[in-house]
Amino acid sequence: MQRTNDKCPLCGVPVRIIRRSDGAADHYEHLELDEIDALPNPIPPGLDQYLKSCRKGKRTVALVGAAFTTGPWAPYGEPNVEVWCLNETHMSPWVKTEGITGWFQLHPRWVFNREHRSGHREWLTRDWPFHIWMQQEYDGIPRSVAYPLRDVQAQIGVVKGEHKVGGIFSSTFAYMTALALLQGFERIEFYGIELVLDGEYAFQREAMAFWVGKADGMGVEVWMPEACHLLEMPLYGYDELRRGDGSILTPPENPDT
Question: Same structural domain for residues 86 and 19?
Fold first, then answer.
């Protein structure tokens, strides 16, 4: 048997293909996250040139998540482009801290103070050349800056009853996007942000859809990779219909009747 690394043709996640002596695929094995993160995943040259041309003359920020699918594609160190990362993604070998211009750790202190294999608590205490946006400034974290929550909330014009909605923040990505709008960026690019799984990510997608729409309504260009699962849905009424329980309603044999 021969083992080779490849990508799943359905989801694009790297897997290890086990091949027989004649070269035919026998089965595949999952790779551990640290194995995946260590694999090379450069941005396709054509796409890289296209994005550079789109950014010309526009104040651009790249928001980077933890997904290996497109996270390594972020324009680290590119002139006139800011790159913002978050949480414990510094443990991924493809995150290049020398090209970062902003970091976000918006969890309460008891969360980031926990012991973790990433050494995140110690990492925060270093004197980095970029701000670390947090709930407040913390002693012992020299680059911590208080996130301007009231200012970003003031951008929301939606009213429920007699009060403005101020809580459309269900993920750090939402906070990052809102701050990018507050700071007047003309173009926002997403890398390594999928929110594709159910559970926590399903809870987070609604707010992200709001802030992407808010950006578009303000005339801000938003770009995300083709493989990104944000805003990925069929056209209701045209492509499919669903019942109240979420199941898909299938047409009759003669749908024109």
Answer: no
